[in-house]
Amino acid sequence: MPDSTSTSVVFPSLKAAQVVRDRLVRAGFARNSIDIERHGEEFEVSITTREENRARAKRILSGSPLGNDLRLAGTQALNTFHANRVLALGLAALAGVALYSLMNRR
After folding, report:
1. Number of other CB atoms surrounding residue 101 within 10 Å
2. Residues ≥6 apart with Cβ < 8 Å to 14
3. pLDDT tens for residues 88-101?
4. Can you give the C-alpha Rg of the chain in angstroms?
5. Angle between helices 14-26 and 54-62 (to 10 degrees)
6. Are 47 and 33 in contact (CB under 8 A)?
7. Strands (E), the chain
8. Average pLDDT, the chain
């Protein structure tokens, strides 16, 4: 890559490094651009990517797994909603009718 840059973070275990590598792959980064190197008892995960993707890669490397997974799940849910608008709107209408009927019970 002519305009590539490298970003890396050190982790205390191989398992933590592999989890971060898998999160990077799920986020769309190429597996062959991610390296895990051992330095004594620690493991360094480095990724080579284009400059415009560097901030996103760094956020995934140093961010919390839960936050990244929630962000990814939200993006996937939004993409699913956009792909199936009629179904999503139908489900929303059904939920509205059910809520209305529950609130009007006496």
Report:
1. 9
2. 36, 38, 43
3. 888 889 999 999 99
4. 21
5. 140
6. yes
7. 4-11, 34-39, 42-50
8. 85
Residue 33 DSSP one-character state:
G
**CA-to-CA distance for 62 and 46, rounded, in angstroms?**
12
**What is the architecture, at CATH level 2, of domain 1-63?**
2-Layer Sandwich (3.30)
What are the domain boundaries of the chain? Answer: 1-63, 64-106
The whole-angstrom distance between residue 4's C-alpha and the CA centroid of its chain comes to 22
Q: What is the reported pTM?
A: 0.58
Question: Judging by DSSP bridges, how do beta strands 34-39 and 42-50 pair with one another?
Answer: antiparallel
47-83 confidence digits (pLDDT tens): 999 999 888 888 888 876 666 667 777 878 888 888 8
